[in-house]
Amino acid sequence: MSTLEIKGLHVSVVTEEGSKEILRGVDLTIKSGEVHAIMGPNGSGKSTLAYSIAGHPKYTITSGSVTLDGADVLAMTVDERAKAGLFLAMQYPVEVPGVSVSNFLRTAVTAIRGEAPKVRTWVGEVKEAMSVLSMDPAFAERNVNEGFSGGEKKRHEILQMELLKPKIAILDETDSGLDVDALRIVSEGVNRVKENQDLGIMLITHYTRILRYIKPDFVHVFAGGRIVEEGGPELATKLEENGYAEYVTA
Amino acid sequence: MSLATTTNYLTPTGREEPWRFTPLNRLAGLQDQAVELHDRISLEPADIPFGVSITVEDAASFPPLSESEDQVVQRVRESASKVLVISIAKDAEIGTPIILTRKVLEMAAEASRVQINAGLHSRATIVISNAGDGVFAEDIELNLEPGSNLRFITLQEWSTKAVHVARHHAIIAKDATFTSYVVTVGGSLVRLLPTVEYTGPGASAELFGLYFATDGQHLEHRVHVEHGVPGAKSRVNYKGALNGDSARTVWIGDVFIKAAAQGTDTYELNRNLLLSDGARADSVPNLEIETGDIVGAGHASTTGRFDDEQLFYLMSRGIPSEEARRLVIRGFFSEIVSKLALPEVEERIMSRIDNELATVRI
Ligand SMILES: Nc1ncnc2c1ncn2[C@@H]1O[C@H](COP(=O)(O)OP(=O)(O)OP(=O)(O)O)[C@@H](O)[C@H]1O
Ligand SMILES: [Mg+2]
């Protein structure tokens, strides 16, 4: 049983005009097995929240805390956060030229598990994980995200999640760019990890489509750098019909 | 061993275009006769396959095949009384690489001439492997007869003090294919001139390079491709990384398409990765075109810093920062290194780079 606890989180970015505050006091607690959907207008700071938890150097935490089972996440390096059990499926996965997917996955799994996977079982493990996500095995020999279509990149993120077995996963618009079949396949992958690992999930999305597959326990409305309303799945339906107008202050 | 004869060619001052990037005071006197050149042939072949001959000949019987305005090359030609001649027989297909290893003569500066002849329709790979310390001035000429295919690999895995100035000049005949790989990861000052000329249509040259400079190293590559006949092709792709505030690299890519060279197809590329704030990479692509009747001509040059997004992505998957850097650097060079098709050499070069990365905090 794991708990990710975000308290009073304020985050700024450095801009040409100086420091600009993006997150203005985020409070959110995610426990193992829970799905928290985060919905909010473009530019409201959802990715900023995701990146700040993962430790992207661009974001400066000005106040607040993030803990995983009591351990101070903000004091950890980026790789330590992953080793502690956090995973971020990125909205825009990064291309790494010249590094093959298979080499990347093996290196990451070795780092997370603390030992190199057994050669014999490893190849099968990757093949199986790729096959359930309907990824062509040829992807293993391609360079990380290089030339991948938008949907292929998202599948590759979930493939990594399946192999790295995190405690808490943040899925930043993993559903964007997926066709109907891919959406189902990727959602099944997420649900599999949730079942097997008792994964806790922060699901950032603009659409209720994915929520038909990955059932949220909580829906949070994110606007102006903070959570402005919380509710159950019915809130998502209401948002889809009415938009965010009532939450966005002029 | 005979001593160099003195002649009256001009000594570079550093203001000439070809010398403006080179720290002349670190050339160990190769350019200004401050040092005597010993003519000695320090390349030793391993086994010589059937179809290949490697002999030492009198320079008088093997005059230069090409002209060179480079003062050091001219000096080598004045000094060397012998020429190492490597010949691949007509139609020979040599499966295993022909490897020549440098046997270093400490202290004495050396001038050596090498001529390589790839016979009609022959196929071969020649590897020149340089390691250790020394002062070398070298004039290598490669003559590719029609239809031949020659892969030419030079490895500069010098120690920290070596000074190495060399020209590799390829003369490529009709339908012959030349592929060169220049790998420079060691030495105090290395200045290499990979140059190409064509004598017939269908001739092709692919020139690949990889360099990695750390503190105190000046690694310079001056590519020159002269399209003087119709229907020839050239591709140039050099990649370099610099680690350490006093690391310096220079890449010059001169491609000349003469009026007669209709149907020329050329593209040259140089990418540099700066791993330290003070490191400096000069990159000067230069394309001169005298005819509009060509298939294609282009160039690109980029010099950039480490991509933090790549590092973040790898680290967010649990990979520690040192290892993430190594992966990104290996990835950067892999497109060149993997083409060598010499697994042992590939691993040796990449682990040397890994080790040198580890010594300096980026
Ligand atoms: N370097 C920067 N300079 C100025 N503004 C920035 C900078 N970086 C981020 N921002 C701003 O921070 C805000 C939050 O961005 P973020 O990517 O977190 O939004 P989001 O909620 O994920 O949006 P989307 O739904 O479009 O993905 C945006 O208005 C963005 O323009
Ligand atoms: Mg976003």
How does the SSE layout of this entry go?
The complex is a heterodimer of chains A (250) and B (362).
Chain A: E1 3-15, E2 18-31, E3 35-39, H1 46-54, E4 59-68, E5 71-72, H2 78-84, E6 86-89, E7 96-100, H3 101-113, H4 119-132, E8 143-144, H5 150-164, E9 168-172, H6 180-197, E10 200-204, E11 218-223, E12 226-231, H7 233-242
Helix pairs in contact in A: 5-6
Chain B: E1 37-39, E2 43-45, E3 52-58, H1 71-79, E4 82-88, E5 98-102, E6 109-118, E7 123-132, E8 135-144, E9 149-158, E10 163-172, E11 177-184, E12 189-198, E13 204-214, E14 218-227, E15 233-243, E16 248-257, E17 265-274, E18 280-289, E19 296-305, H2 308-315, H3 321-337, H4 343-359
Parallel strand pairs in B: 1-6, 4-6, 5-7, 6-8, 7-9, 8-10, 9-11, 10-12, 11-13, 12-14, 13-15, 14-16, 15-17, 16-18, 17-19
Antiparallel strand pairs in B: 2-5, 3-4
Helix pairs in contact in B: 2-3, 3-4
Bound molecules: adenosine-5'-triphosphate and magnesium ion.
Report on this model:
The complex is a heterodimer of chains A (250) and B (362). In chain A, helix 5 (150-164) packs parallel to helix 6 (180-197). The longest helix of chain A is centred in the C-terminal third of the chain and has 18 residues, at 180-197. In chain A, strand 1 (3-15) and strand 2 (18-31) form a beta hairpin. Chain A is globular and about 55 Å long. The model of chain A has no long low-confidence stretch (mean pLDDT 95). Chain A is 34% helix and 31% strand. Chain A is built from seven helices and twelve strands. The relative contact order of chain A is 0.18. Chain B has two domains: 17-305, no CATH class; 307-362, no CATH class. Chain B contains four helices and 19 strands. In chain B, the strands form two sheets. In chain B, strands 1, 3, 4, 6, 8, 10, 12, 14, 16 and 18 form a ten-stranded mixed beta sheet that branches. Residues 1-8 of chain B have low confidence and may be disordered. The interface between A and B is medium-sized, with 29 and 23 residues. Magnesium ion (MG) is lined by residues 46-47, 91, 172 of chain A.
